[in-house]
Amino acid sequence: MRETFQGIKTLNYSMNSIVKQFIFSVVFGVLVISYHDSSAKEHPGKAVYTKYCLVCHQASGSGVPGMFPPLSKGSWVGKDPKELVLIITKGLSGKVEVNGEVYKSAMPPQAQLTDREIADVLSYVRSDFGNSFKPVDVELVKKVRSGK
Q1: Which residue, 1, 34, 118, 142, is most buried by CB atoms nearer than 10 A?
Q2: Residue 114 reports pLDDT greater than 50
Q3: From CA 105, how far away is CA 92, in angstroms rounded?
Q4: Three-state DSSP state, 132
Q5: Which residue segment(s) compose the domain that 60 sits in?
Q6: Of 23 and 93, more confident
Q7: Residues 6+ positions from 134 with CB-CB distance below 8 Å
Q8: Quick one: 37 and 49 in the same domain?
Q9: Same domain for 14 and 83?
Q10: pLDDT tens across 8-22, in order?
């Protein structure tokens, strides 16, 4: 009987140890996941880019040769932000040369975008795809749109 009691006591200790390890693993996993989610915040302009720009300029910002220019390093993205705001709000057509390649497709105006969305998407493309340009301020977008 004493051996049975000792066996139950050992089994009980093992179960407690397993339960404690399981609880620790779950808690640790939740902490890691929540830290990862909070530390990997997506740029607010990425959602705008995905919705309005990705089809033509591609997920990598590489564009489509001969049709849609790239937004990567060396492209127009580094130009004066005022020009970029005008391109988004007024569109762009005609022959365009980027990095020595000629593009002839038209970019329709995206005037439906809010000032904040324009500032966000321009800031996103100016900081992604190998670019490292200053963000675009929403106040600048408002100024350009109002013609000031």
Answers
A1: 118
A2: yes
A3: 9
A4: coil
A5: 44-146
A6: 93
A7: 81, 126
A8: no
A9: no
A10: 555 555 556 665 564
Would you say 105 and 51 are in contact if contact means Cβ atoms under 8 Å apart? no
Predicted local distance difference test score (pLDDT) of residue 26 = 45
| pLDDT in the model for residue 111 | 93
CA separation for the pair 99, 130 (Å, rounded): 15
Q: Locate 130 and state its tokens.
A: 């190998």
Picking from 65, 66, 52, the residue whose alpha carbon sits closest to that of residue 125 is 52
> Counting every residue, how long is the chain?
148
Same domain, 124 and 55: yes
Do 125 and 74 fall within a single domain?
yes
- List all residues 6 or more positions away from 66 whose beta carbon is below 8 Å from its beta carbon: 101, 102, 103, 104
- 132 and 78, same domain (yes or no): yes
Looking at the structure of the chain, the number of domains it has is 2
Are residues 36 and 48 both part of a single domain?
Answer: no
